[in-house]
Amino acid sequence: DPGTPLLVNFAAKDANDQSMKGRYKKAILLLLGVGAVTFVLTALMHPYEPVHQGQRLSEWLEQFDRSPHPSQGREQASEAIETIGSNAVPYLVQMLETKDSRLKAKFVQLMRKQSVINIPFQLAVERRRSACQAFLILGSKAKAAIPNVSNMLEDKELYLDAEQALFVIGKESIPELTKACANTNCTLRIQAAIVLAKLRRGAARTYSPSHNDALTIYGDDVNALVSNLKDPLPSVRLATIEALGSMPSASPQLVVPALLKSLNDADRAVRVAATQAVENLGPHLR
After folding, report:
1. Does residue 85 form part of some domain?
2. What's 55's DSSP letter?
3. How many domains does the chain have?
4. Residue 30: inside a domain, yes or no?
5. How far apart are CA 242 and CA 23, in angstroms?
6. For residue 62, what are the contacts with CB-CB under 8 A and spacing of at least 6?
7. Burial level of 50, CB count in 10 A (0-12/13-18/19+)?
8. In angstroms, rounded to a whole number, what is the distance separating the alpha carbons of residues 52 and 85?
9. pLDDT of 146-200, one tens digit each?
10. Residue 108 lies in domain
């Protein structure tokens, strides 16, 4: 019968489609199972999550994030976070040090591509941003977090969020940033010197998920960095010189005389750094 092969082909194709769908469903179920286990284990390892007016801290943070600025919803969330106060610190520290495994990141990305099942997973970078926003709201009330946050400066995945957290917590972070100026990592020293200068001059504490306010240099920050060249600690002076030497376009008429003066610093390492900084800036002064 001439029609038989056609029917057989259709049947084979249908069977193949069903097999593919079956494998896809199994893959989804497997990922859901792994995700559920990950979710439960993560929840068990979390510190106690504070509650205010029947809502958990994470729910207030979610309300803050999804509410437009300004809005009553955002203001309400901000007031709730401020009321929770220092009780939020252990949970926020845990949020700030969150990292994603490849499996979890792929799972979240896959789940966000479908609309059948809504699972409220957050990527680690989103949790860290929420933590920084909460630290901004709390300010000095979050000072108990400073030692833990400072330890994150050594982590290549967390250090930028840690710097921003120290910045928005405020002047209570100055001692730890001063210590960071003596770190063996040059990049970390430079960034610590910048944030230290900002806090010492009383810069407005701001935070933006898309912009690193802690490391953005303004005119007043250059003045503050130059002032830090008089710091009694050689490590702070050294880190400050490295910071100034890394920004050739920042007020050379102010920076260069200060660096030239540092060529006579009492500390040899500072003098060497000043010499290098002046040499680096040389081509930009012509």
Report:
1. yes
2. E
3. 1
4. no
5. 57
6. 130
7. buried
8. 11
9. 999 999 999 999 999 999 999 999 999 999 999 999 999 999 999 999 999 999 9
10. 49-169
pTM to 2 decimal places: 0.78
Alpha-carbon distance of 142 to 265, in angstroms, equals: 37
pLDDT of residue 16: 60
Percent of the chain with pLDDT over 70: 77
Rounded to the nearest 10 degrees, the angle between the axes of helix 219-227 and helix 252-262 is 10
How does DSSP assign 109-156, residue by residue? Answer: HHHHT-SSS------HHHHHHHHHHHHHHHGGGGGGGHHHHHHGGG-T
- What are the backbone angles phi and psi of residue 179, rounded to the nearest 5°? -60, -40
Q: Which helix (H) or strand (E) holds 71?
A: none
Handedness of CA 85, 86, 87, 91 (dihedral sign): positive
End-to-end CA distance of the chain: 91
- Alpha carbon distance 189, 163 (integer Å): 11
Q: Is the pLDDT of residue 25 over 70?
A: no
Q: State whether the Cα torsion 243-248-253-256 is positive or negative.
A: positive
Q: What is the mean pLDDT of residues 70-83?
A: 94
Identify the pLDDT of residue 232.
Answer: 97
**Residue 11 is assigned to a structural domain of this protein:** no
Q: How far apart are CA 151 and CA 159, in angstroms?
A: 9
Give the torsion sign (CA, 123, 125, 129, 134): positive
Residue with the two structure tokens 């600690």: 233
Is 77 a domain residue? Answer: yes
Confidence of residue 7 (pLDDT cuts 50, 70, 90): very low
Orientation angle between helical segments 234-245 and 219-227, nearest 10 degrees: 150
